[in-house]
User: What shape does this take?
Amino acid sequence: MGGLRIVTVLAMVLLAGCAPRPTAMRAAPDPAATIQTIHVATSLPLDKAGPQFGTARKPGLNYFRADISVPPTHMPGQIEWPEGKPDAATDFVVTGTEVLGDATRLIAGLRAEGAGRETLLYVHGYNNTLSEAMYRLAQIRTDFEMTMPALLFSWPSAGDPLGYVYDRDSVLFVRDDLVALIKRLTAGRGDRVFILAHSMGSQLVMEALRQIALLGDRTALARLSGVVLMSPDIDPDVFARQAEAIGNLPQPFFIFITRADRALTLSGFITGRKPRLGVIDSAEEITRPDVQVIDFSALATGEAYNHNVPVTSPAAIEILNRFLSESRRPAAGALGALTLRLPGPNAVPR
Assistant: This one.
């Protein structure tokens, strides 16, 4: 990427950072809206849903449940933030919350919500606030018609485009907490966890899985029903060593890439002008047979720097839903057979 383009992207990110960040707001429910119950495990204070840049991190997790109302006017891939007074008829809003005292109550809530014992665990990425991550998970659950209970692991991102190094340190700070959570979620014989990680959250997930492997807990790893790394902000060399330490990766194991991802292009410039895993030129760069790479470049719309195309592009959502509906099995994970009908093993239709 040329110097001028890098400067342009950096300027865009900085300008975006100057805009006030939206915060989840309460409103009365609307009977036509869809309610998505989101459970949350977070190291953030429960009274701080906005940016955290410079905030002192605290060990341990807080737990709560939030009812997110998705408006009847919702369009796939979008988060309809209020532009004025929040209205459940047109906006994402919070209609209810409950603080959960400990992990035991969190697990009980997840089990009570789902018919089975499989949980979708979502780990957000760099420059995210708690509000944004909750709404994104509610949007994903709505657009992909997911029925399994959803759990957000919200780590202490600065929620600021200038907080890249702060966020990378936060990943290391909170790694043990994610390990403990995964072990709790997979403690029972019938327990299953499907992990969806975005951006720098992929680095956090890989570090957690590596640590679980080094602890010798193959049972927890075996109870992962699949992993998706979406736009992973990881050095490919580091990923290779992490995967080597983990050994047999949970199956299925997907990497979603978008070569037009401007956020990862900038990340690569910051970290040594080396392409990140989410923008590799070819799926063949990943040589492990237990990893499937899917390229969403052709479906990029330019929104949000093309950093989360699989869940924001209406075309990508339509394609993913088609494959999910055609390949869904009663015991399958959320994306268990995604590539079965793709025209090539590592690319979406162009």
